[in-house]
Structure formats: structure tokens, C-alpha cells
Amino acid sequence: MANHSQFGFQDASSPIMEELVEFHDHALMVALAICSLVLYLLMLMLMEKLSSNTVDAQEVELIWTILPAIVLVLLALPSLQILYMMDEIDEPDLTLKAIGHQWYWTYEYTDFKDLSFDSYMIPTTELPLGHFRLLEVDHRVVIPMESPIRIIVTADDVLHSWAVPTLGVKTDAIPGRLNQTSFITTRPGIFYGQCSEICGANHSFMPIVIESTPLNFFETWSSSLSS
């Protein structure tokens, strides 16, 4: 999760988020190169006397026409690749359904029989020592790590948004519609998210907690709940 005075992204815990962080750094380097070039040209124009050859140079006009097109291609190609990767869902090992309510989440493990629960935020007055305020829930979503997970998102009343930044996942929950996305957790841990769509007075009190565990722990947990 994010730390105080943190300027960058949270540590990536999925391949998609790793790609997003790399693309962000790539785009920033391109922007830095453009700003440096523009600043250099401005300083050059202020300090040097322009000649008629400089003002009427056809080569310069050709360069500043073609160069932006090349920059756009350098940004568009990796961006399109990541977009296709985010939409790709190929034989998931587990399907999870998240239903948004005012103001809590309901989770259904569709591959299991009668495995579903509601997830409410723990009030500050009942929060155990050492847990995070406004982020901890009474029932966490437990998933096996290094396994493709498909999540189907919908809502029961108003618009919501199921978002976990460290996994690079953000999907709108719309009443009467099913949206889906997928992710893979690359390491065990607890990952926090929140509803990212203004959904009413208690919009800030709809946290999401994902607990990524080894497969044997997940099997033990699912057996204890479904039995």
C-alpha cells in the first residue's frame, strides 16, 4: 500500500502493473527529452542572432513536422500492447464475482458451491491494534498466488468501481451489467484498494482487501468456508 510522502506508484504485485509502471517511466523519459530539447532551442534563440537561413530553413520545418509523429508512435505502440494485455482473459484458474452495494462488497466464488460472503469495513472503534484505519475489512478476499484470476464486477444499486492499485486493476461496477477483468498476483501479501466511483455519502468507506496466499493455504481456507 502507499506510504506517507510517496511520490511514485505502489510496488507492483502483478505483471500488468509492472508493465504500467514501465510505460509510465517510458512516457516520462520521452516528455523529459522533449522539454530539454524545447528549452535548449529557446535558450539558443535568446542568445544567438537569427539569420535569414535559420528563419527560412526548410529542413527545420521538415524535422519539427516528422519528429512529433515519431514520438507519438513511440508512445502508442507500448500503450496499445498494454491495453490488449489488460483485456486478455485466457483460461482462468478461479472466477470471482464482486457485487457493489451501498456501502459494502459481496463476493461469490463461482467455482465453489455456496462460497460467498459480504465484506464490510471495520469501524475505527473496533479496529484491532496495528491494522489500517478505513482500509481493513471483516472478510478478506483470499486468492491463490501465481494463478490467473478472473473477476466479474457488477453493482446492485448505484455505480461503483472495484480498484486495487498494486494489482493494476480498476473495473466499473454498473447495475444490470457484468464487466470482467483478470490479474495474477506474483507474490504473497495483502493488497488494499477502495471503491473509485463516487457512490453516495459513505463512498469513502468501501475498502477492498485482497489476500494472496500459496495454493495449499487457499485450499484449506476455501474448504473451511464451503463445508
From TrEMBL:
Gene3D superfamilies in alphabetical order: 1.10.287.90, Cupredoxins - blue copper proteins (2.60.40.420)
Xref: PROSITE patterns: COX2 (PS00078), COX2_CUA (PS50857), COX2_TM (PS50999)
Main location: mitochondrion
Transmembrane residue ranges: 27-47, 62-84
The keyword Nucleotide-binding is annotated on this UniProt entry: no
Catalytic activities: 4 Fe(II)-[cytochrome c] + O2 + 8 H(+)(in) = 4 Fe(III)-[cytochrome c] + 2 H2O + 4 H(+)(out)
Domain Cytochrome oxidase subunit II transmembrane region profile: 1-90
CDD domains found in the cross-reference section: CcO_II_C
A cellular component term, taken from the record's GO annotations: mitochondrial inner membrane
Membrane topology according to the record: Multi-pass membrane protein
Location of the Cytochrome oxidase subunit II copper A binding domain: 91-224
GO molecular function: copper ion binding; cytochrome-c oxidase activity; oxidoreductase activity
Keyword Nucleotide-binding included in the entry's annotation: no
Biological process (GO), any one: ATP synthesis coupled electron transport
UniProt keyword list: Copper, Electron transport, Magnesium, Membrane, Metal-binding, Mitochondrion, Mitochondrion inner membrane, Respiratory chain, Translocase, Transmembrane, Transmembrane helix, Transport
Free-text comment on the cofactor: Binds a copper A center.
Top-rank lineage group of the source organism: Eukaryota
Subcellular location: Mitochondrion inner membrane
Cofactor: Cu cation
Alphabetical list of InterPro entries matching this protein: CcO_II (IPR045187), CcO_II-like_C (IPR002429), CcO_II_C (IPR034210), Copper_CuA (IPR001505), Cupredoxin (IPR008972), Cyt_c_oxidase_su2 (IPR014222), Cyt_c_oxidase_su2_TM_dom (IPR011759), Cyt_c_oxidase_su2_TM_sf (IPR036257)
Function field: Component of the cytochrome c oxidase, the last enzyme in the mitochondrial electron transport chain which drives oxidative phosphorylation. The respiratory chain contains 3 multisubunit complexes succinate dehydrogenase (complex II, CII), ubiquinol-cytochrome c oxidoreductase (cytochrome b-c1 complex, complex III, CIII) and cytochrome c oxidase (complex IV, CIV), that cooperate to transfer electrons derived from NADH and succinate to molecular oxygen, creating an electrochemical gradient over the inner membrane that drives transmembrane transport and the ATP synthase.
Family the UniProt entry places it in: Belongs to the cytochrome c oxidase subunit 2 family.
Name the UniProt record assigns to this protein: Cytochrome c oxidase subunit 2
Organism from which the protein derives: Dryobates pubescens (Downy woodpecker)
Protein encoded by which gene: COX2
